[in-house]
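FAQ

Q: What does a record look like?
A: Structure on top, sequence underneath. For example:
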């Protein structure tokens, strides 16, 4: 119990710290919190980010059971604490299952192993997802299965499936386990019927509420059809190297003890195939996020019974039993090492140095947006702004398409505020240009990005963060066309490319004026690197001119620049990865440094 409380305190505190420092930047917390918030206002399950209803995304009736708790504190932090409570309390059924089969000492060991498991901790910190709540109930499903208490078994199944439609895949597997265990017909048939019926029923409901009248997440599973039409090709896809590495990553923390009782791994087979047969297959990202949550109960149950089998079979596992103490030490070391190497704990300790000055800038901008005003936001601000009826995500306005390019999209005309991080333009390039599914759309819409701000005036800007208001007369301008008579206090005349020359700079008061001569077309992949920030040249608002033109670009630093130089770079390749505290980050794999400008 002490370990559960300690885990609960640490991960609740850090989840709140992460939220208050704007580190939830993968959309899901913002989307789901808005659904909860709108539901408290009588707009049941309404989502303006993925309109019209969250039921078009997933079927999650558990929301109604959680709503009374959320009603007390209508804030994204409430959801983060609920998630942490469910994951922490999952150590309880793990303890009970291990106690029944291995005794009190092993029960304590497995309870601690759950709390130290890196996949558990990663899921805890990566956004908020309903799926992470399901493990608590799935463990109880197994507990009552083992106790042969059929009524409670069914109740636990129903509660688990209420969380999300794909939990049904785990429930179906209990029917297959019952066949292996040679249980009576009710144990075999009931989970399969309930699981299949619930899954397809939920799919029909989701299709009804989806704008495209289809279950949109099927896009993740193009190989499902191949399993039936070409089983050999499907098998080869499943046996890819990255899926093997993913499987090893799941089993390594408990030192592969689950393999001693492989029949129990069947409980996670459906969800493992769901991920391994997906468009990307197994990956490190799956271990760093919530996607593996439904597989964890199978691994822990199989490990418990695996150790039970090892202890009971003295001859087959003679070497392990002869050196039990050493084996236990190695297992404990594996758990601790995996927690440190694959989990977020080291990143949590290192991340406390995040600059408070940047957070003050963001909070100041957010506080200028009225609580009930329709707003559109970059990734970083979505969660903080999500307790409002109408909120939109700028990435869809940028692409001019809804999620998965399913339909055309325009920013709703009632939008009053935009809050945008120009660093997101680099994120969009890394997220979309290198993805074959999005590439053509990205290249088509990228030049029209500047139209997003039509009708909006710049209220405030610091570093890459900007706030815009509809029909506002701005006092600050990001770029200006000037003539060759404009005084430049620090001339440079530094040629960077055939089409671009840096002419020099001024520093009036609290901002910089950078002067550039542009002759023709510019690559949209040109970025300025100032300290640790990268954002598009001219804020992405100019990509070509008809004749040689002098452009003044204004820049307001968040703080005094410690390095008195800027770099012009061309980003060639990269992607989006998960960082040490399970936020998303931009990773540039290849870039050209076009020039270093000294100030």
């Amino acid at each position: 119990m002490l370990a559960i409380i300690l885990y609960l305190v640490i991960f609740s505190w850090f989840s709140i710290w992460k939220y208050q420092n704007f580190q939830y930047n993968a959309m899901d917390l913002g989307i789901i919190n808005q659904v909860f918030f709108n539901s408290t206002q009588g707009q049941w399950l309404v989502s303006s980010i993925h309109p019209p209803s969250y039921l078009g995304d997933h079927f999650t009736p558990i929301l109604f059971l959680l709503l009374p708790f959320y009603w007390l504190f209508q804030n994204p932090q409430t959801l983060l604490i609920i998630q942490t409570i469910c994951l922490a309390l999952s150590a309880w059924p793990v303890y009970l299952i291990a106690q029944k089969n291995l005794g009190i000492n092993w029960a304590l060991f497995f309870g601690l192993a759950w709390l130290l498991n890196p996949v558990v901790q990663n899921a805890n910190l990566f956004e908020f997802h309903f799926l992470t709540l399901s493990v608590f109930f799935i463990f109880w499903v197994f507990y009552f299965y083992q106790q042969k208490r059929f009524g409670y078994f069914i109740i636990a199944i129903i509660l688990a499936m209420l969380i999300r439609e794909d939990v049904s895949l785990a429930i179906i597997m209990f029917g297959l386990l019952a066949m292996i265990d040679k249980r009576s017909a009710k144990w075999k048939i009931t989970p399969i019927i309930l699981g299949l019926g619930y899954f397809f029923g939920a799919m029909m409901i989701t299709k009804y509420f989806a704008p495209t009248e289809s279950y949109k997440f099927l896009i993740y599973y193009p190989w499902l059809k191949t399993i039936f039409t070409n089983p050999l090709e499907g098998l080869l896809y499943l046996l890819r190297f990255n899926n093997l590495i993913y499987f090893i990553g799941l089993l390594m923390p408990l030192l592969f003890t689950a393999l001693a009782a492989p029949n129990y791994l069947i409980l996670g087979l459906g969800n493992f195939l769901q991920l391994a047969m997906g468009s990307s297959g197994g990956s490190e990202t799956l271990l760093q996020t919530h996607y593996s949550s439904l597989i964890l109960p199978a691994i822990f149950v199989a490990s418990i019974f695996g150790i039970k089998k090892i202890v009971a079979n003295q001859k087959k596992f003679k070497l392990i039993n002869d050196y039990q103490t050493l084996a236990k030490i190695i297992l404990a070391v594996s758990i601790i090492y995996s927690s440190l190497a694959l989990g977020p704990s080291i990143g949590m300790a290192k991340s406390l140095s995040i600059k408070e000055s940047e957070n003050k800038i963001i909070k100041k901008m957010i506080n200028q947006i009225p609580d009930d005003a329709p707003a559109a936001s970059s990734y970083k601000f979505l969660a903080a702004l999500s307790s409002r009826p109408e909120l939109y995500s700028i990435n869809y306005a940028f692409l001019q398409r809804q999620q998965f390019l399913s339909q055309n999209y325009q920013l709703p005309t009632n939008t009053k505020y935009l809050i945008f991080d120009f660093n997101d333009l680099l994120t969009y390039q890394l997220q979309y240009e290198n993805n074959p599914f999005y590439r053509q759309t990205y290249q088509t819409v990228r030049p029209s990005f500047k139209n997003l701000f039509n009708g909006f005036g710049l209220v405030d800007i610091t570093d890459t963060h900007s706030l815009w208001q509809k029909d506002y007369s701005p006092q600050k301008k990001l770029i200006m066309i000037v003539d060759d008579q404009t005084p430049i206090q620090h001339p440079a005349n530094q040629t960077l490319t055939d089409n671009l020359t840096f002419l020099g700079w001024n520093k009036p008061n609290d901002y910089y004026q950078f002067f550039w001569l542009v002759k023709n077309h510019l690559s949209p992949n040109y970025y300025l690197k100032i300290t640790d920030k990268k954002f598009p040249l001219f804020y992405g608002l100019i990509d070509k001119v008809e004749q040689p033109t002098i452009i003044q670009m204004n820049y307001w630093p968040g703080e005094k620049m410690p390095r008195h130089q800027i770099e012009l770079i061309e980003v060639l390749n990269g992607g989006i990865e998960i960082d040490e505290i399970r936020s998303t980050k931009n990773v540039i794999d290849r870039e050209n440094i076009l020039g270093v400008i000294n100030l």
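Q: Is there anything notable about this one?
A: The chain is about 45% helix and 15% strand.
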